[in-house]
């Protein structure tokens, strides 16, 4: 049974928050803390989320009609930021030991 492109995309989007929580656990950092606020009206909500993890704060640039979508969006932003930070730290470590050639 094939999974539709829309269902597949929806499944991928629901993993950002889970992946962020798992990354925090693997890194031994604090658990992500989400703050979500409604910037719309009761009859037409527009949610924006912020997440604090490992001393860094990430905020979604868009609003969403559902709280879950706002949390997934900010989780994706946080994952991208943390992966970039890890990448930069790895490059710094490599440069400190004299380049990749010295690691072999």
Please compute the radius of gyration using only Cα atoms. 18 Å
CATH topology of the domain at 32-99: Double Stranded RNA Binding Domain
| Level-1 CATH class name of the domain at 32-99 | Alpha Beta
Shape: elongated
Give the low-confidence spans. 1-5
Q: What's the layout of helices and strands?
A:
Blueprint: H1 5-13, H2 15-27, E1 33-38, E2 47-53, E3 56-59, H3 67-96
Antiparallel strand pairs: 1-2, 2-3
Helix pairs in contact: 2-3
In short:
It contains three helices and three strands. The chain has 104 residues and is α+β, with helices and mostly antiparallel strands. It has a three-stranded antiparallel sheet, with helices on one face.
Q: What does this 3D model show about the protein?
A:
The chain has 104 residues and is of the alpha+beta class. 50% of the residues lie in helices and 16% in strands. The protein has a domain at 32-99: Double Stranded RNA Binding Domain. The protein is built from three helices and three strands. Helix 2 (15-27) packs parallel to helix 3 (67-96). The chain starts with a helix and ends in an 8-residue tail after the last helix. 18% of the residues are buried. The model is unreliable at 1-5 (pLDDT under 50).
Features of the shown structure:
elongated; Double Stranded RNA Binding Domain; disordered N terminus; alpha+beta; 3-stranded antiparallel β-sheet; single chain; 50% helix; 104 residues
């Amino acid at each position: 049974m094939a999974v539709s492109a829309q269902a597949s995309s929806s499944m991928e989007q629901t993993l950002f928050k889970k992946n962020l929580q798992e990354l925090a656990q693997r890194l031994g950092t604090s658990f992500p803390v989400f703050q979500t606020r409604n910037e719309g009206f009761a009859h037409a909500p527009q949610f924006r989320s912020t997440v604090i993890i490992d001393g860094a704060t990430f905020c979604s640039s868009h609003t969403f009609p559902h709280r879950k979508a706002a949390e997934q969006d900010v989780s994706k932003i946080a994952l991208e930021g943390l992966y970039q930070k890890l990448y930069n730290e790895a490059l710094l470590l490599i440069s400190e030991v004299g380049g990749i050639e010295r690691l072999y």
